[in-house]
Structure formats: C-alpha cells, structure tokens
Specification:
The protein is an alpha+beta fold. 35% of the residues lie in helices and 35% in strands. The N terminus is likely disordered.
Length: 304
C-alpha cells in the first residue's frame, strides 16, 4: 500500500468515527442529550476547580513558606541582638585567708583581699564600661585607656574612686572607707558637709573617710608598699622596731595604736611575720618576737 493510499484510509476511518458518534447522539432522546451535556459540563467544571484548588494550595504553601522564613530571620536577628546587648554580670569572691587576682577585660587587674568581692558587667556590643563594685579590699593596677576613658569604683557610693591609669589600694568595708595611692593620681568623690565633693589624692597618701562627720583624714606614708603586706600574707621586716611593726599592723587591720612612749631597749627584728584574718593572732606573734605584752581591746593596741 502506498503512503497516499494509507493517508486516505486514515482519513476515511476518522470520518467514519465522527459520523458514528454523531449518529449515536442523534439516536438519543433530547432528555438524554441534555443529561449528557450536563454531565460533560460538570466534569469540565470539576476538572477546572481541581486545577484551581491545586494552584491555590501551591500559592498558600509558598506564602506560608515565605512567612515562616521571615519569622525565622526575625527570630535570628532578635537572638543575635539579645546576645549582643545582654549584660553579663561577673562576680568574684574570696573566703577567709584567701586572695584572688582578677584580670579585667580592659587589661586592668585587681587583687582581692580575703572576705571581699568584686563585680562588673560586660556585653558584646559595648564591651566593658570600666566600672566595678568592690566590697572589702583590693589592690588595683589600672590600665590606661586609649580614649582616656575613666575607671570608676563604687560609682555613687559614699566613697567613689575615679582613675585613668594608676596603682592603689582601696578598702570599702563598712565602716572603713580608705585608699592608699602608690603611683599615678586618683580623684575621690564623697559626701562632705557641703554636699558632693571631690579631692585629688597624691602618691604616698592614705585617705580615710569619716562617714559620720563627712570628713577625710589624710596622712602621708613614708613607705606605702608596706601597707600592701596582706598580698603576701606576711610582713617583711628589715631591722624593724616594735613601734614600726605595730604601726603597719594598725593600718592593715584598721586599729588604733594608742599614743604612748615605748621603751627604747626593744631589739630590732628582721624576718617575716605571718598575717591572718584575725589580728589577735598577729599580736600574739609580735609579743613572742619582741618578748613583751601587748593588749588589743576595742580596736586599740596598747603595749604594757
């Protein structure tokens, strides 16, 4: 069979099928034809609705996905901001007869004496604000800041310390508020009878605040390093007299050395004197070293 004959045969077959369908519809009653048309329309409409529903479902899924992604992005941003802005509070504390050296975020250091605590805050966004709170006693070595940002201890308290770069010893242990400056300069803020008052402290000065009278008691110490003996938990003596040793002990424990004329026949002592949190134990050791009787009553030292 040639290609032309084959095409003619296919065309005749298609014409036959169309005529057959037309004849079959023609044989149906009008009611059946209308029912058939309705059924065909319903199927077409159902197909369209099904297609629309699938398309709407895809749109909803896409919309929900975008919303979920947006929420996740917002939560991630908020989480990052919270982490960045959250204040982290750091507190260090010592027990009896214990010291602790603390490295601060700005490069400064603080050596805590026994029964003391130091607190500061830090966050990732702004870093360390160079402000700390001290209860007890500590020796500070304050690093200089490139932007000349001040370092403040106990801001707004009865005795506030403001420095830029220096070394000093500070005691904030009610009712004692005392500072000894080793080097550099320090500005003290306190409540005087005239209100808020500032005073600059010079190296070698020991400043003590009389809280009741709102006055500062200042004196110059010949060798302020000796007042840091608590750091090693011992007093190092080099041909020291009884009066010299008791003067150091009085400063370390905030005691009063009763003004009296001490005998001059006491020997000079060299060596080291252990320090503890109990001044009575230290006084007893001094009694043995100098072979004398010493009384400690109501924070007053008296030699017999």
């Amino acid at each position: 069979m040639t290609e032309e004959s084959s095409n003619l045969f296919q065309d005749d077959q298609m014409a036959f099928e169309e005529n057959l369908e037309t004849d079959m519809v023609g044989l149906m009653t009008i009611e059946d034809q209308q029912a058939l048309k309705k059924r065909i329309l319903r199927n077409i409409k159902a197909g369209i609705q099904k297609h629309e529903q699938k398309r709407n479902n895809r749109r909803r899924i896409f919309t929900y996905t975008k919303i979920a992604a947006s929420v996740l992005i917002v939560l991630a941003i908020n989480g990052a901001l919270w982490t960045t802005l959250k204040l982290e509070k750091h507190t260090y504390q010592t027990g009896s007869n214990e010291t602790l050296k603390i490295e601060l975020p700005d490069g400064s250091t603080a050596l805590l004496n026994s029964n003391s605590s130091l607190t500061y805050t830090y966050n990732m966004a702004f870093g360390f604000d160079r402000k700390v709170e001290l209860i007890g006693e500590a020796y500070f070595e304050i690093a200089k800041d490139a932007e000349s940002k001040r370092f403040v201890i106990n801001e707004g308290d009865v005795m506030e310390v403001e420095v830029f770069g220096t070394e000093f010893n500070f005691k904030n242990q009610n009712p004692i508020h005392k500072l000894t400056l080793i080097q550099g300069s320090v500005k003290l803020g306190y409540q005087s009878e005239q209100g808020n008052t500032n005073r600059m402290v010079l190296p070698g000065e020991t400043i003590k605040l009389d809280v009741e009278n709102h006055q500062l008691e200042a004196k110059t110490v010949a060798d302020p390093i000796k007042l840091l003996a608590w750091q090693d938990r011992k007093i190092r003596m080099q041909n020291e007299s009884l009066e010299e040793v008791l003067s150091i002990v009085a400063e370390l424990y905030d005691l009063e050395l009763v003004d009296q004329t001490l005998p001059t026949n006491y020997q000079l002592i060299s060596g080291s004197l252990p320090l503890t949190d109990n001044p009575n134990e230290v006084i007893e050791n001094i009694e043995v070293l100098f072979d004398t009787e010493i009384h400690l009553e109501q924070n007053s030292i008296r030699v017999q």
